[in-house]
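ok trying again, last paste got cut off:
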Amino acid sequence: MVCLLYIFPKIIVCFLLVLTLTNDIDLNLYESLCDPEKNNGECSNNFDCRCSIVVPTGEHICTLSLPCSSAVPCNSDNQCNSTNSICVIDQRCHHQRLCYPISLNSPDRCPPLTTNNRF
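nice, full thing came through this time. structure:
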């Protein structure tokens, strides 16, 4: 978690992760210990963040809320047409499979809960 400790290295590390994500099918995301089925999917001190499931890996990530009406559905192969998005099951949008912008998956936008007693 060097990314969380230093401001300058965090920017470099997160930038490199985005480059890796856009070129590799095996995603290396900012994974969360959240559970989408518990506590309304709470995963962050930011109330606008909720737990989502990455398709098809099953990883849990903490995602910033996006309006369901403007979300882009994943294609039939559970892929996204945009190289800067990943397919997630979004609990907030009736468990739909939606394309989520990778750039929004960061501890800056959805800081982890200060305690994990809620899980």
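cool. Strands lie at 49-54, 60-64, 72-73, 85-90, 96-101. Residues 1-27 have pLDDT under 50 and may be disordered.
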